Automatic annotation (TrEMBL), chain A:
PROSITE patterns: HPT. The lineage of its organism: Bacteria, Pseudomonadati, Bacteroidota, Flavobacteriia, Flavobacteriales. The modification Phosphohistidine is found at residue 55. This is Hpt domain-containing protein. The keyword Phosphoprotein applies.
UniProtKB/TrEMBL annotation, chain B:
Pfam families: LytTR, Response_reg. The modification 4-aspartylphosphate is found at residue 53. It comes from the Bacteria. This is Response regulator transcription factor. Residues 139-237 form the HTH LytTR-type domain. The lineage of its organism: Bacteria, Pseudomonadati, Bacteroidota, Flavobacteriia, Flavobacteriales. Keywords: Phosphoprotein. Signal peptide: none annotated. Residues 2-114 form the Response regulatory domain. The keyword Metal-binding does not apply. It comes from Winogradskyella litoriviva. PROSITE patterns: HTH_LYTTR (PS50930), RESPONSE_REGULATORY (PS50110).
Amino acid sequence: MEQPNLSYINSMSGGDKAFEKKLIDIIKGEFPEEKKVYFQNFEAKNYQLTAENVHKLKHKISILGLEKSYDVAVNYENNLIDGNTDGRIEFESILQIMTDFLETL
Amino acid sequence: MNCIIIDDEATARAIIGQLCTNVPSLKVLEDFPNALQAIKYLNQNEVDLIFLDIHMPDFTGFDFIDTIKNPPNIILTTSDPNFAIQAFGYDCIVDYLVKPITPERFQKAIDKAAAIKPKASEPKSKTSGQVETSSGNDLYVNIDRRLIKIDIPSIYLVEAKGDYIQVKTDDKNYTVHSTLKKIEEKLPNDLFLKIHRSYIINVDKIIDIEDNSVLIKKDVIPVSRSNRPELMKRLNLL
């Protein structure tokens, strides 16, 4: 399975370590909230809102360099918009991988 | 160029802010987590450029553009490339950045914006009849990309209808894409009361109460058991 990395964050920080730390802290604060809302909306079977949550989470997937996972999220988002949940297990595995990675930072 | 950033995602605001620091000609005046706060800011301040997210809850980037008069140059920032065609239907949109934004692509967008004559937004006075978000007795609702002003005391009933709410006033009814919880936060507590999970009423407009229902105008509204004590407390009973 694809693993997260900090390539994007490093490339756009221009070597500004303070900014890198600030951005990681923001992601570590925001990601669990977005994940929580995603699970709540999914449990409530509100798939349109769940799709919007996936849409927001996609940005963090790409920031953490998960290119293939980004495509998985795009497909899952489109499925949710159509009212089906295909791709859920794969997407939620990506969330777990991101969670584990962020805990190491 | 003076600019502002509008994005509901803190991570995105931080990234765009950082990218701006690498461009000496750019000065970030403010950033906003939603479009309505930005509209309020633009009523009083002039900016040359706006970085605008499209996907935001309640009030999208396109709603924002449709709402402000004489928008300045706008660079859209989004995770969704599918809006590009719609975006270029707007003269004010100078570029369309798909997240994650790279420094190179960001610089290209800034060069485009700089090449276009800046057309700073016009600050609008509160009395000019332009867009305002809220004031005293007014509530603004977004209907078909327009902000419509409703006089709060004229509202007698708000009813939840799926993803929408129906706001009934003395003169007119409005169907708005919102939730009962959101409008409840905007309405004054001393005048309005939630009497059922699907209804908020203006207590001053009650005609009579019978058993577990309230007659308000011509509408008979159920009162849930849990909300009844609060309703009774609010009445000036003899």
